[in-house]
């Protein structure tokens, strides 16, 4: 079911759920002030109720409506990167419902950089809670058809085309005395450190329960293996001796070619790989392969850090 901006705003006003595009991934949105609306998000996603959601607002200034005691670091980062793929964790305030933050005293907030998202948030005029619009534990959606594939007619989708960043926002915890990155994403660690003028740690295993931090998150159905260049070729051939394998790479090398090895295009730059990774994983799954080999550059600079993080989660042992 596709819908117009006006219809999407009307659904939000009625406490219903609407999927909408952002520059990172599609979100599953509902009024962040209404418990009944937020409960619909958790139910649809199949997400545990103690996993907090990100609150989306149309303007930087609206941070004051959902947060209190916003410190200097949060102000700086918001001014530098909003609208953009950055989420700030700050002390919660305003009239958010308790469920949106999973009962905790902090809230995650961002201003997305997508014209349709900003139009929706502006016309609605209030905070919109939105996790990525996929079922819990599955690959995040970077196109409207991915949302439809996961939810069918149960969710109305505002179609804004493919997402330009393709990986989730960077989450920076600014609720304490020194900021820390909880999830690498579309804004690089280097850019955050340049903005703040000092080093910022990446805490991938913080005590804070962040759903994106669970092992085996962002996982397709097929098992995922990550390997560099030559190693990826060899691995694809070995796996293909027993199973159907998809190789995610710019080209399928002769060394990887063999019975049962399929090629799924993945660009060569970190930006292209970030943008295309989730849809390539979904495409490989749709081919019905048993295993996916991702040929990775392995860099952890710039967007490489977020890519490496998502690949390690997609390839983590399944529980
Ligand atoms: O790019 C994005 O951030 C996308 C788009 C839709 O905006 N949203 C997204 O939401 O990735 P979700 O729910 O899939 O991930 C939200 C992350 C989770 O890891 C959650 O635990 C964390 O944000 N989070 C939310 N509130 C938090 C808080 N108060 N403290 C620490 N982490 C928090
Ligand atoms: Mg998610």
Low-confidence stretches: none
Ligands (ions, cofactors included): threonylcarbamoyladenylate, magnesium ion
Q: Which class of secondary structure composition applies to the elements?
A: alpha/beta
* The CATH topology of the largest domain: DHBP synthase
Q: Mind telling me the CATH superfamily name of the largest domain?
A: DHBP synthase
Percent strand equals 15-25%
Characterize the main sheet. Answer: 10 strands, mixed
What CATH architecture label of the largest domain applies?
A: Alpha-Beta Complex
Which range best describes the helical content: under 10%, 10-25%, 25-40%, 40-55%, 55-70% or over 70%? 25-40%
Write a concise synopsis of the structure shown.
This protein is 31% helix and 18% strand. It is α/β, with parallel strands linked by helices. Helix 1 packs across helix 5 (115-124).
């Amino acid at each position: 079911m596709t819908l117009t901006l006006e219809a999407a705003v009307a659904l939000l006003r009625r406490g219903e759920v609407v999927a909408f595009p952002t520059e990172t991934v599609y979100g599953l949105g509902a009024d962040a002030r209404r418990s009944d609306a937020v409960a619909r998000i958790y139910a649809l996603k199949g997400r545990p109720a103690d996993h907090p959601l990100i609150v989306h607002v149309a303007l930087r200034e609206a941070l004051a409506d959902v947060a209190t005691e916003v410190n200097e670091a949060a102000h700086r980062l918001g001014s530098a990167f909003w609208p953009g793929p950055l989420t700030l964790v700050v002390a919660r305030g305003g009239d958010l419902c308790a469920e949106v933050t999973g009962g905790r005293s902090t809230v995650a907030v961002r201003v997305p950089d997508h014209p349709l998202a900003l139009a929706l948030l502006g016309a609605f005029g209030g905070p919109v809670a939105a996790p990525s619009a996929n079922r819990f534990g599955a690959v995040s959606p970077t196109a409207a058809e991915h949302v439809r594939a996961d939810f069918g007619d149960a969710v109305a989708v505002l179609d804004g085309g493919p997402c330009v960043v393709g990986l989730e926002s960077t989450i920076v915890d600014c609720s304490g005395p020194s900021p820390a990155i909880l999830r690498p994403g579309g804004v690089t660690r280097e850019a955050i450190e340049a903005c703040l003028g000092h080093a910022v740690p990446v805490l991938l295993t913080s005590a804070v329960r962040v759903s994106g931090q669970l092992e085996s998150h962002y996982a397709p159905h097929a098992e995922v293996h990550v390997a560099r260049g030559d190693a990826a070729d060899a691995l694809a051939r070995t796996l293909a001796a027993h199973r159907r394998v998809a190789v995610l790479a710019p080209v399928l090398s002769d060394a990887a070619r063999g019975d049962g090895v399929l090629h799924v295009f993945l660009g060569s730059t970190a930006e292209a790989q970030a943008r295309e990774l989730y849809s390539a994983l979904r495409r490989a799954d749709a081919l019905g392969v048993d295993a996916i080999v991702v040929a990775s550059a392995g860099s952890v600079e710039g967007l490489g850090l977020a890519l490496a993080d998502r690949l390690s989660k997609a390839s983590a042992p399944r529980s």
